[in-house]
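Box 3.1 A note on notation
Throughout this textbook, protein chains are presented in two layers. The first layer is the amino acid sequence; the second is a token string describing backbone geometry. Keep the layers aligned when reading.
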Amino acid sequence: MVGATLISSCSPTPPTASDTAETDAAAVTLATRDRTTLRLLYSQVPLTLNPHLATGIQDFEAGRIVYEPLATTNERGELVPILAAAIPTVEDGSVAADGKSVTWQLQPDVQWADGEPLTAEDVVFTFDFVSNPQVGAATAQYYEAVESVEAIDELTVKITFKDVTAAWQIPFTGQTGVILPQHLLADVDDAATRSAEVNQQPIGTGPYQVADRQPGAIVFEPNPTYRHSAPFFQTVELVGGLAPYAAAREVLSTGEADFAHNLQVEVALLKDLQQDGQGVVDTVFGGLVERVMLNPTNPLAETPSGERSSLAAEHPFLSDQRVRQAIAYAIDRDSITEELYGFTGRPTAQLLVAPRPYANPGTVPYEYNLEKAKALLDEAGWQDTDGDGIRDRDGVDMAMVFQTSVNPVRQKTQTQIEANLQSLGIDVDIKRVRVDDFFSGDPEQTNSINHFYADLQAYTTGNDHPDPTIYLSWWTCGQIATQANQWQKPNNARYCNTDYDALWDAAQQELNLEKRAALFQEMDALLAADVAVIPIVHRATTNGVSKDLVGLAPTPWDASTWDIAQWQRAAAE
């Protein structure tokens, strides 16, 4: 196991019901566990097992148990073939020297779980599926650089790009690159794609297939056509809806489960639970950054079509760079990190924190300075003119709605930031949204991060590929989430800077590694200078792992379950 961390004891107070997620799935009753049963715990129930339609990380995690990509990236940043026979290279001619195409060879004799053969046509179909606007695939952005996908023969696929593309390895790799079965999805009507039964009962090429669905849980069994040796576990139970503390307790303290994903539990509680000796805390640092997003548009103003947070109406004070800078200076990153994250986080003011050489940690300085923050607000004309403790200007109070998802660590972070801002004379109204609603891709869900009908919002995301091209495109003008695109674009900050767009365009086509890294770092510095977003903590993916579970090779560049075929029990003593 990589990244396992044993930690010393303390005696914190467990969270109350109000500090945890709404649902405690400990009540879910599953089959009696034995050595051949693997129990996985998640904070949310997967809504779909098709990662291309995913609305949350739990969907990717569950989908990767069944589906596979052409390749993935391990913890050392190396591309590893999965469905591909080998990794393409410039040297063997499969990666075009001009950066305009790449050719993949598939492994022979790979079968879907129903016995049908995997062919290059499945890869072509997957591209057609993802790029079809009627499908509304969540992963469409990862394929926007692709002009065409062609089946040269049954086992050979050529990807041609619209222009020079340095990040040739992004399409069809990692959790956003799984291959779908053409023979099961080709006849599904576009309008019915999301509700298709195959998304709940998928047929994949991976080590497991769905055996049963229960309220709050999915049960998997080995795929009989899997090309490698049969996996160790005969049953995999994925349980969703557990509060983070409850999930941590079941793995670290009681031993009732084997794996708990993304334990957003304050570090003092993790230390306490681990003392019972049933499991360890495993940390994997990748590109995840807890951040505060600032809305430069007015969430209260409404267009004739009913759109709020529209580009047609700027925010009364967050559109002022000086105000955004003041907020950034007012947030005490060190205190938040020390009190809530400990070894699971590092304070940062950068968006691009991994991997090197693209990221250069420490290039963007941060400073906690309330006096500088107050001076900036004074300069911007926001002062407390009526003595009520709240800054105002021209009859408008400096009042903000600050939303985040229901999550104990995030809620306490939100409370600390609220106190920081109130010390500046900013009135903060705390809003907490159900996780399923906050991260929803439903265009009708106005509490989602992409609607951003608030002034501030906090959550964690980052680059899920080592190459940050897609991640940094989230701040380009063409990716702004609006009513016109059903809020499906990722730029919920509504940030638009033509200088930034020019840097991104140049980086996308730059084949020289050093020059490309310099462009990415310049983009990161520009976002920091504009305070387009306020990074707070470089956060690890923090999992709970049973002490007798071995074979895990966690990577920040794919789902935790990417190598679940290798997981097994340690030999009995």
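The mean pLDDT is 91. The first strand starts at residue 4 and ends at 5.
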